[in-house]
């Protein structure tokens, strides 16, 4: 048991009220020290650009913009028991939809609000149709997983053969494996997010501070929002469905609707990564629909720990960074990532970061540093 | 609720209910009804169609023929969650709790339908008291003792505030004392006007409950009547009651059910 | 071009499509049907079969034996994979999916590193026959027969051998089978090896018709997955057959009217329609029809 002083108890009580909606048994990272770390990390992220070169800033923005994809997969796989092996399809659809609308309307509109809306809306629509078929058909989990992979690979095949002159949508040329471009005499690229707020116009170029802060802000909002969601009623129902769909249905919940809803939400998160990706690099190719792009989020989430949003986000950042580093070392990158995945699945099936978190938690307990009272009571 | 007039209309009724799997007729033309507030036990030898009948009532499988009426309303085509919200509470066979979730979470899901955000916490504590699980709310349900899990499962069904409880082997694996307590729990619910259909292998429990019995045999209703009538029923004794001694009987009856989907 | 040639040409295409579907899916569907596990390294097992076939062929081994060696190589790889990885995830289907996907990544990328992006392909034997202006590859017709023979062989294996009996017992109720003295662990290992062996055999057979590289098998996996989704149900053999016949028809029609991509898209759409309206798979649906007509 934790013998905290009165002050600590009070702090805990206040924090409990403040963080209550974000804390719950469904997210393992919920102790006081964790939240202190969280504050430190957010602060560091806020001041980080001061210490980065332009290139490093560009790179960090890219790494962080993957977090939404990881959070989405974590939400459906870890929290709802729905594994999708084609989660990057929604990233790609979002990116392409954003890019196509952006190319067509950037000049007439002057901003990309419409492109943003379509870029986020289109993948959700596709997810809704696929989800309706799969969940309302009460398809088995393994089928959902491999069907999503088939869907994404077919989109890749389709886009790869669109290099010819017949493949225009308005001004946007699908461009086969060269990727999305604009062809009106000269080839140009999909635009960066360009958002008008009243009079002012902000262009979120990949190398800009604005883009970096956009990604960080969205990331923190998405992370906290999802933490709230998984501990709210919807999340509790999802956990029920993950553990026993039949039982949850008999308790009066429409599990098909809940699965469809969470699937669409995960598609939205992927689409955010997709729009950011195009906006960041001003290009997108059919590769994002391929095997590698789809196995990567699965590796992040599986290795770090699928039952925790915190682990998924950290795992994503760490492993994207690692794969970039590995890619510089030679051709071994994917073999190493595959090995990491298999070893993690064999040795730490619940996730490496989860194991690490538990070890730290035990250490704190032994040192007598107060954890969240609700956990301490587990005794 | 109590403002509904008590009529002779059955709380649940099936007409000509049939279901087959592959070539096997699991349930054949079953006409069955339970009056509001009544307890009914369903017994039958292995493969008699009890589980299939249970699933048909609950809605997880659809009949090939026939219809199901709940409070006079045709619910044959209704999904399980709709039936649940109409007032059918279910306790599945074998420890039907969410083992990997906390006791609180287990109770939260059924209670959340009927209580606002604030009341749920209070309702959970009341429920915990009633189920003798106070103080265990943050434990994972999988870590509870066997009997506690059974009670939690029944409690989850009760928390649905049902008009009709479907209980599949509520006493499987319980000791004599726990069985007695469970009988008392079911009776106390019944006193509040909740009807119950209990599928059970354990004849000792069936006797303790003392409710009218429906005997299923080869998917048909073989006999129906009060406990005494059924125990005296010669054909029933012949198909399995009389032939076996109670101990043997229990063993035969609690062997694994072959009728899986 | 006269009608006869058209019909013959269509039938030839249809047979070829069915052969490809059956061959690329048989190993996958056997493992899935018996163990409930989707082997994501299925394409790599086909790749191992093709590589072994090619290496043996150029080492002077006659083609049929080279193909058989391909099957053997993949079967061994499968048994090792089962021992080292798959075994840990029985009862956790999604985890086994992810773990074998990791193995798939290691194997395909490893092959790329070790052997490069292409290896020598094996020439197609038998030549071709001409009917009017169109010529048909005899080997592709042979593949159709080979596909049917494999199905028949698997059926006979399950139906008539001791191994088949044990496998069916284990499928129905592992606990009961263990109680009856069946070594279920060995059965699982054998079944997995059988599945990957068939994948390797298929890889070897199909290798004679295409170029071979590290991602050779992966090009077959989407259609193999679709075949399993449509045919996966209670009935293994009839499910595979029903699935290959129906998907083959859809693919052949759409491929000949439009292009290969449309053929694949049509298969996916067909699969989505099937799962929405016949969730238990096409074999269940057929079984029910048969039952009803039998009764009525």
3D architecture notes:
The complex is a heterotrimer of chains A (379), B (261) and C (296). Chain A has 379 residues and is mainly alpha-helical. Chain A contains 16 helices and 6 strands. Helices cover 68% and strands 6% of the residues of chain A. In chain A, strands 1-2-3-4 form a 4-stranded antiparallel β-sheet. In chain A, strands 5-6 form a two-stranded antiparallel ribbon. Chain A is globular and about 65 Å long. Residues 1-5 and 371-379 of chain A have low confidence and may be disordered. Chain B is 38% helix and 23% strand. Chain B is built from 10 helices and 10 strands. Chain B has helices at 50-58, 80-86, 103-111, 117-130, 146-159, 176-191, 203-209, 227-232, 234-241, 246-253, and strands at residues 12-21, 24-34, 39-43, 65-70, 73-74, 88-91, 164-168, 195-199, 213-217, 220-225. In chain B, the strands form 2 sheets. Chain B has a 6-stranded mixed β-sheet, sandwiched between helices. The longest helix of chain B has 16 residues, at 176-191. Chain C has helices at 3-35, 42-58, 63-84, 93-115, 138-160, 162-172, 174-179, 184-207, 221-231, 236-257, 260-277, 282-295, and strands at 128-131, 134-137. Mean pLDDT of chain C is 86; it is low at 291-296. Classes of the chains: A mainly alpha (379), B alpha/beta (261), C mainly alpha (296). Chains in contact: A-B, A-C. The A-C interface holds A 77, 81, 83, 85, 130, 133-134, 136-139, 141-143, 145-147, 149-151, 153-154, 157-158, 161, 291, 295, 298-299, 302, 331-332, 334-335, 337-339, 341-342, 345-346, 349 and C 32, 36, 38, 85, 88-89, 92-95, 97-99, 101-106, 109-110, 112-113, 218, 222, 225-226, 228-229, 232, 261, 264-265, 268, 271-272, 275-277, 279.
Brief write-up:
By secondary structure, chain A is mostly helical.
Count of strand segments of chain A:
6
**Which stretches of chain A are poorly predicted, pLDDT < 50 over at least 5 residues?**
1-5, 371-379
Strand order of the largest sheet of chain C: 1-2
Report the oligomer.
heterotrimer
Question: Main β-sheet of chain C: number of strands, strand sense, barrel status?
Answer: 2 strands, antiparallel
């Amino acid at each position: 048991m934790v013998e905290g002083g009165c002050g600590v108890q009070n702090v805990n009580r206040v924090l409990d009220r403040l963080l209550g909606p974000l804390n719950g048994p469904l997210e393992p990272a919920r102790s006081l020290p964790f939240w202190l770390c969280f504050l430190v990390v957010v602060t560091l992220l806020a001041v980080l650009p001061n210490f980065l070169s332009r290139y490093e800033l560009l790179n960090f923005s890219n790494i962080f913009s993957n977090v939404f994809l990881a959070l989405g997969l974590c939400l459906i796989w870890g929290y709802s028991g729905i594994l999708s092996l084609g989660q990057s399809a929604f990233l790609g659809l979002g990116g392409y939809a954003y890019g196509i609308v952006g190319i067509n309307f950037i000049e007439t509109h002057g901003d990309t609000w419409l492109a943003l809306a379509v870029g986020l809306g289109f993948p959700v629509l596709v997810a809704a149709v696929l989800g309706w078929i799969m969940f309302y058909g009460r398809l088995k989990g393994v089928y959902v997983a491999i069907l999503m992979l088939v869907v994404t690979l077919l989109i890749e095949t389709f886009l790869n053969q669109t290099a010819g002159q017949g493949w225009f949508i308005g001004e946007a040329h699908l461009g086969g494996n060269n990727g999305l471009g604009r062809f009106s005499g000269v080839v140009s690229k999909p635009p960066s997010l360009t958002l008008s707020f009243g009079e002012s116009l902000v262009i979120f170029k990949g190398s800009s501070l604005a883009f970096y802060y956009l990604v960080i802000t969205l990331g923190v909002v998405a992370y906290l929002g999802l933490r709230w969601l998984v501990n709210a009623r919807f999340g509790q129902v999802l956990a029920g469905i993950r553990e026993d769909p039949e039982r949850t249905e008999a308790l009066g919940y429409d599990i098909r609707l809940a699965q469809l809803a969470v699937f669409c939400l995960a598609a939205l998160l992927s689409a955010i990564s997709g729009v950011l990706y195009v906006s960041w690099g001003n290009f997108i190719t059919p590769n994002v629909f391929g095997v590698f792009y789809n196995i990567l989020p699965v590796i992040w989430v599986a290795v770090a720990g699928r039952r925790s949003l915190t682990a998924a986000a950290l795992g994503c950042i760490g492993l994207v960074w690692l794969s970039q580093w590995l890619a510089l070392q030679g051709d071994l990158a994917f073999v190493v990532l595959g090995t990491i995945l298999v070893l993690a699945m064999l040795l730490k099936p619940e996730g490496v970061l989860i194991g690490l978190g538990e070890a730290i938690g035990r250490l704190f307990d032994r040192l007598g540093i107060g954890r969240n009272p609700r956990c301490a009571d587990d005794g | 609720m109590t403002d509904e007039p008590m009529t002779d209309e059955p709380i649940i009724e099936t007409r000509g209910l049939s279901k087959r799997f592959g070539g096997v007729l699991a349930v054949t033309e079953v006409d069955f009804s339970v009056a509001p507030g009544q307890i009914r036990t369903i017994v039958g030898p292995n493969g008699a169609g009890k589980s299939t009948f249970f699933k048909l009532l609950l809605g997880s499988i659809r009949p090939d023929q026939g219809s199901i009426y709940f409070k006079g309303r045709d619910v044959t085509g209704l999904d399980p969650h709709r039936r649940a919200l109409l007032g059918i509470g279910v306790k599945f066979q074998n420890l039907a709790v969410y083992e990997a979730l906390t006791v609180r979470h287990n109770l939260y899901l059924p209670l959340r339908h009927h209580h606002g955000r604030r009341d749920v916490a209070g309702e959970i504590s009341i429920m915990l008291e009633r189920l003798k699980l106070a103080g265990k709310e943050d434990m994972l349900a999988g870590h509870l003792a066997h009997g506690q899990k059974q009670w939690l499962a029944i409690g989850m069904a009760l928390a649905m505030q049902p008009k009709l409880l479907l209980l599949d082997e509520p006493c499987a694996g319980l000791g004599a004392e726990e069985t007695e307590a469970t009988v008392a729990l079911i009776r106390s619910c019944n006193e509040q006007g909740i009807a119950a259909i209990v599928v059970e292998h354990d004849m000792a429990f069936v006797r303790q409950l003392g409710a009218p019995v429906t005997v299923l045999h080869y998917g048909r209703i073989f006999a129906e009547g009060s406990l005494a009538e059924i125990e005296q029923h010669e054909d029933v004794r012949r198909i399995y009651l009389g032939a076996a001694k109670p101990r043997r009987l229990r063993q035969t009856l609690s062997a694994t059910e072959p009728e899986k989907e | 071009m006269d009608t006869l040639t058209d019909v013959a040409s269509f039938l030839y295409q249809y047979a070829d499509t069915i052969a490809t579907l059956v061959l690329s899916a048989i190993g996958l569907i056997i493992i899935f049907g018996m163990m409930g596990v989707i082997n994501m390294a299925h394409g790599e097992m086909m790749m191992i079969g093709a590589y072994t076939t090619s290496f043996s062929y150029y080492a002077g081994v006659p083609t049929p034996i080279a193909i058989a060696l391909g099957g053997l190589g993949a079967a061994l790889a499968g048994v090792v994979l089962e021992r080292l990885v798959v075994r840990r995830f029985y009862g956790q289907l999604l985890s086994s999916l992810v773990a074998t996907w990791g193995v798939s990544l290691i194997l395909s990328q490893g092959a790329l590193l070790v052997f490069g992006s292409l290896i020598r392909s094996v020439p197609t034997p038998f030549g071709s026959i001409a009917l009017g202006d169109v010529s048909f590859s005899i080997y592709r017709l042979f593949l159709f027969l080979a596909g049917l023979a494999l199905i028949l062989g698997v059926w006979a294996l399950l139906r008539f051998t001791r191994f088949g009996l044990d496998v069916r017992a284990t499928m129905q109720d592992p606990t009961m089978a263990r109680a009856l003295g069946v070594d279920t662990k060995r059965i699982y290992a054998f079944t997995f090896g059988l599945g990957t062996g068939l994948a390797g055999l298929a890889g070897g057979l199909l290798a004679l018709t295409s170029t071979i590289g590290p991602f050779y098998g992966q090009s077959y996996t989407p259609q193999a997955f679709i075949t399993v989704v449509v045919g996966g149900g209670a009935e293994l053999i009839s499910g595979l057959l029903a699935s290959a016949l129906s998907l083959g028809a859809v693919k052949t029609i759409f491929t000949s009217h439009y292009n290969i991509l449309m053929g694949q898209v049509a298969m996916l759409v067909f699969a989505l329609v099937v799962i929405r309206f016949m969730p238990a798979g096409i074999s269940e649906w057929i079984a029910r029809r048969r039952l009803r007509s039998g009764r009525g």
